[in-house]
Amino acid sequence: MNERSTIRLRRLEASLAQGGSLRLAEAAALCDVSEMTIRRDLAASDGALVLVGGLLMRADDPRHAPAYDLAVQRDRHAEIKRRLCERAMATLEEGDTLFIDCGTTLMPMAAGLPSDLSLTVVTYALNVADAVSTRPGVRLWLLGGLYQDSSRSFEGDDMAATIARLGINKAFISAAGVHDKKGLSCFHFHEVAPKRAAIASAEHRVLVVDPSKHGLVRPARFAGLDEIDEVITEQESMEV
Asked: The pTM is what?
């Protein structure tokens, strides 16, 4: 990193020393450079500052959401997730074509699909596909593309179009944030297209979410609560 980049980053760190955030345009104006220059500075930095949803913030600021860690999320609220997935699986019927979203919430469902039903599972998540591939009687459709290790899922330009061509009976959707006014959101922007495509094409849209996600807003919004037919949470399942 050159000296000018170092000076700019120090100026930004000083501006954020008391917390808060800066829009990318504000950070660029503060340093009298372009937004692309700020992006390049951040890419070459030690990670003390992060850009999330167009906002620059300190990586260690506790008031902002941390980066998504799949291994950590897997162990959080594991028993609750298992119970929620049991309810979700109780709705399955012979011949269903299911969309199973990425993340860890729906993993107990992927690993426990009933062996006495013929099902087709559509997913863009490698961990879901790995679990489903061992289930007897289940046909797997894995949507591929560029692999994103942070969420063990794929990103592809044609993913939404492929989902739209499939006859999905039930879409099981996960979210990292559920807010009454702001709707449903997640950490990763590449998840928005497949989530939206599944919501648009499925006959029945089911949100499966543990209570820790309630009231939160994450960087990437993908739907409103009014686009969901049913919510399975720690309380009883509810129609929306």
From this structure: 0.70
Please list the alpha-helical segments (H only) found in the chain.
3-15, 24-31, 35-43, 70-75, 78-89, 107-111, 126-132, 159-165, 192-201
Average predicted confidence (pLDDT) for the chain: 88
Largest CA distance in the chain: 65
By mean pLDDT, which of 41-50, 56-65, 120-129 is the weakest?
A: 56-65
pLDDT of 197 reads 97
- Provide the percentage of residues in the chain whose pLDDT is more than 90: 60
CA 135/CA 111 separation, integer angstroms? 7
* CA pair distance 126, 111, nearest whole angstrom: 13
Cα–Cα distance measured from residue 61 to residue 174, given in angstroms and rounded to the nearest whole number: 26
Place of tokens 């720690």: 234
Burial 21-38 (b: 16+ CB within 10 A, else e): bbebebbbebbebebebb
